[in-house]
Amino acid sequence: MDITLLVGITAILFLVISISEPLAARLRLPYSVVLAVVGAALGTLALGLQTTDAGLGPELREALALPIKSSVFLVVFLPTLLFEVSLGLNVRRMVDDWVPILVMAVLAVLAATLVIGFALHPFSSMPLVGCLLLGAIVSTTDPSAVVSIFRNVAAPQRLMRIVEGESLLNDAAAIALFGFFLTYVMAGVPNPTLLSGFGTFPWLLGGGLLVGLVLGRIAVEGMRVMPGHPLAQISVSVALPYITFIAAEEMGVSGVVAVVGAGLLLNIAGPSRLAPATWAQLRELWGLLAHWAGALIFVLAALLIPRLLTDVRPHDLFLILVVAAAAFASRALILWGVIPALRAVKLSPRVEPAYRAAILWGGLRGAVTLALALAVTENALVPGNIKREIGILATGYVLFTLFVQGTTLRRVIRRLGLARLSPLDLALSNQVIAVALQNVREEVADSVREHELSRDIVRSEAKRFGQRLENAVQRAEQTNEISDRERITLGLVALAVREREEILDSFREQLITTRLVERMLSDAEYLIERTRQQGRDGYRAASRRSITAGPVARAAVIVHNRLGLSGPLANLVADRFDILLNQRTILRHLHLYIDQKVRRLYGRRVSDLLHELLKRREEEAERALESLHLQYPSYTEEMERRYIRRAALRMEERQYKALLDDGLIGPELHATLCGAIARERTKSLTRPRLDLAVHKDELIRQFPLFSGMDEDQRRALAKAMYTFYAQPGEILVRRGETARRVFFIASGAVENDIAGEKRRLGRGEMFGQLSMLMRKTRAAQVTSIAYSTLLALDEARFRDLLARNRELQQAVVDSARARGVQLDLDLLPAAGG
């Protein structure tokens, strides 16, 4: 085809895309529906012109033949779509719903393939393997249409997360299954057994994921070594999905799964490796590429609809209905059978019935289904009858979902009540309007004074605006509609939203690194969502989650204890310190926000309660920071210095900007000064080394209990002691167990709970000795409240040490007296000096 004609056709397609979007908004239809209609209309026109003698030239006639290959969709457009969706997912928030997402993405695909295949087989001329192949093809869902509708009607964020996650992994699983069954069709195996796929299918998925993660990691490390070249970094991201797809396919694994794996890895690791501005540009570029790819794949696929349906028969319409009914049945089985069952055994969070109904009706099929059907129809190794039926049934089912489900999905969502604001959200909107109008009044007053406008006009407009503000405040203060409990929830939601804004402000001020801001924002969003759902209890539980040790921390401790690898634990401790330091500052700012904004809307009682809840969170953060100080005093001091340096650099940068704006310095000098600040900031971002290794000789020398020992005795003691690492929340001594060892705290802190009386012990102190000496079961429960390093001695070695150390004997007696325990001195071995 002539290059000029190709460029012209491409330009026309982009014009079609540009017109379709506003047309869809005006008609209140899904964007993909309009693209399908326009594409099918153009395809019908092209088919009509080609079959008639319209005096067309050979090149134009060749173009009207629409020589579009499935490889264009699968190699060019599909990696773009999947990679962009992978980059845009909130992976940390999706973890909360990973069970329903995984069930809908993998188990639902398998169920749909089997149900559709076996339901269609009695009525179709295809063998069973052909029916199963069709089932895999129509199992792919189109997220773009559904998510766009959900956003337009303000559907809940959790529903959109489930649908996006399902659609991403759904496509990967379905395409891998498609390749599995296509192999059997080409080999002429009519009825494959399910057992035959158990060895192949997991390798397709697992191998593809491994390839994607490896290549994604290589790409991220490549970006990291070129920090001063943002365009080069973005260019690496553009190459990544296509190289990953091709490499995976050449290795015989799923290229689609590999692209998803690479995208997820860049999603998680990219923000900590790239500058904030570079990451934002990368996301914007991929958003644009995905928009074009999604629209082009739909238009080009829709162009082929008339050709795929040229040989349609009345019986085919019945088969399309069979496919639709089987697809609904399989999806309903998962939504109302499997997910509630998983919920019953506490393996899945609750998915509300309205959500399930929206997910059921929102299973639209789109361009990926058409592309897979086209791949079958152009495959020379596939029998003709299978080509014909798959082309017609897949295309017909796509049109059914678009024109039946797609055009009614908006109304279904509204009927289910998902588009309506809850009473709590409605009340919150009134509060927001009142606050916004009060702020506007203050800003307008300043603007009026600055521009010296006519007094009469100002007076009339002020009266009009004042009436509007008064009405908004009255609606916000209506007590009949909002209970005290809801007012507290509203105040907490407002507080959580403000906390998220404070995090963003700190990030813009470069007080929080890109590495940590994603995690802190994820925690803030979780705080908002849990508060909306569960009020005060949800706020408390969500706020505690951000400072408690999770499964990642436990895994890091295990790796450090068992394998001696301290890197993961060191990074985790450093992250924890940075987060706690910033969180403490943000919580202090929130008190001022309550006094300035919240009190006027929610009243004194709610404001006082919010202050109390914030103080509790501050105390928890202070305790956690105190624990880190006890454990790593020199390291935490260096981290505090590093924080102060970053704040000072930001203030210095603002001063230079003010001088530039006032014309006191020129752009050249300003650029030079900012360059120096950037270099200093890079140095301040480098974390000090956290040494988790325990040098027992040095630690023993620091214990006052062992100060009277000579070097030989210290070396012998170091050999007798063994090191024990504990994480926050780990129980070190359980009440009622037999005492077999005594602990010395080298770093960190523990909490000793005896009959409800709690006492904290820190560096240089010991515990566990009294029960062992008195030969009684433990009366106390001791819990680590920090990442602690302990030295432990068994009973025999401790008694031997006690017999030779007067200072240790005195410490044991003093500890017993402090607890009100009368220790029989005969239990103590005679000191040998």
Automatic annotation (TrEMBL):
One GO CC term on file: plasma membrane
Database matches in InterPro entries: Cation/H_exchanger_CPA1 (IPR018422), Cation/H_exchanger_TM (IPR006153), cNMP-bd_CS (IPR018488), cNMP-bd_dom (IPR000595), cNMP-bd_dom_sf (IPR018490), RmlC-like_jellyroll (IPR014710)
Topology class, membrane: Multi-pass membrane protein
Record-annotated membrane-spanning stretches: 6-24, 31-51, 71-91, 98-120, 126-147, 168-189, 201-220, 240-265, 285-305, 317-339, 359-377, 389-406
PROSITE patterns: CNMP_BINDING_1 (PS00888), CNMP_BINDING_3 (PS50042)
Highest taxon of the lineage: Bacteria
Keyword Membrane appears in the UniProt entry: yes
UniProt-listed GO biological process terms: regulation of intracellular pH; sodium ion import across plasma membrane
Stretches assigned to the Cyclic nucleotide-binding domain: 705-819
CDD domains named in the record: CAP_ED (cd00038)
SMART domains hit by this protein: cNMP
Subcellular location: Cell membrane
GO MF annotations in UniProt: potassium:proton antiporter activity; sodium:proton antiporter activity
Keyword field contains Cell inner membrane: no
Keywords: Cell membrane, Ion transport, Membrane, Sodium, Sodium transport, Transmembrane, Transmembrane helix, Transport
Name of the molecule in the record: Cyclic nucleotide-binding domain-containing protein
Organism: Falsirhodobacter algicola
